[in-house]
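Can anyone check this?
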Amino acid sequence: MRYSLFSLLAQALNGQKGWKPAWREASPRAEYDVVIVGGGGHGLATAYYLAKEHNITNVAVLEKGTVGSGNVGRNTTIIRSNYLLPGNTPFYEWSLKLWEGLEEDINYNAMVSQRGVLNLYHSDAQRDAFVRRGNAMRLCGADAELLDRAAVQEWLPYLDHENARFPIHGGLLQRRGGTVRHDAVAWGYARAADQRGVDICQHCEVTGIRVESGRAIGVETSKGFVRAKKVGLAAAGNSSRVAAMAGLRLPIESHVLQAFVSEGIKPLIDTVVTFGAGHFYISQSDKGGLVFGGDIDGYNSYAQRGGLPLVEHLFEEGMALMPMLGRLRMVRNWGGVMDMSMDGSPIIGTTPVDSLYLNAGWCYGGFKAAPASGWCFAHTIATGEPHALNAAFRLDRFATGRLIDEKGQGAAPNLH
């Protein structure tokens, strides 16, 4: 069924009785050309682009839970391409371009809202760093605009512009950035992949990876062995555990990243704002709740929940930026399990095991990268070689020293 104005009108007249499931509830077959481990945004996008761009439709996506129950449905929905380093900027800009055409491409309302992303700065040194970042973005075709103090104050008068410790001096704005409905991305990609023949297998946990003569030949699952010519791993925070099934030890750690949403209020924030004197970002959802997040908890964990010290730390930063937040009640919080790489940048490419491909190490940037990640991972799996956009994200860069340390913190995952 194709979604359109006419189908909506027809179903309205029919009492909404004719809608079909968005995708088939498939069981894994005995053999596939490609098996993708992980039914999140990256895994589903990979399956879709394998079918669309490379005409590889004999594909299965294996998810131990339900589609959208992992990190793709547990984030703060921000999309942007305001990166500095050469390995990152072209990749994330391609992802933003894919976001801009995604809804028409997959015939699904993912609620892409290009409301802008504003990174505030609070000192002359930080301004100079943002000028450099903005110039790097524009050289790669991304939009960037430096706002002074007066422009920010006129646009966002409710911020604490005269904070004694952190006065706002201006900000770097990317108008094409914004937000997307997170779980709708998973549902839309699942539906689009299914329509091209991909099997979406929920509640099918991968329990082992069978390797013979240095080559991956399939996966053991809770529903039996599934043979595959190629296996792609897109398991986010569980990447280390899944890769260990094939004898690989990855240069990543798993950490919890908490996010929060307040009670609904009238429209207030019409963009995404980040606090330059700490790690705090905030936007407003379509339901009126203020959505915000910040740093990871800093300790290794596979739990989808965080600790109270980070909650206190995050709220302190929020109050420094917007004192009015103290009048709001929090409705809920959640945690995503981040696969933090040593340099804070992702890994997309081949592995020492033949026919086994890796998509991991997304740190804070996984959701915004989903389209480009799937697009590049599909290319890598289909051709056996990385695309130019993900060539810098090789796994062996940690052995050769070709790191992409966007934050400049070194090989310390808990600091990225």
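Reply from J.R.: I decoded it. The longest helix spans residues 124-139.
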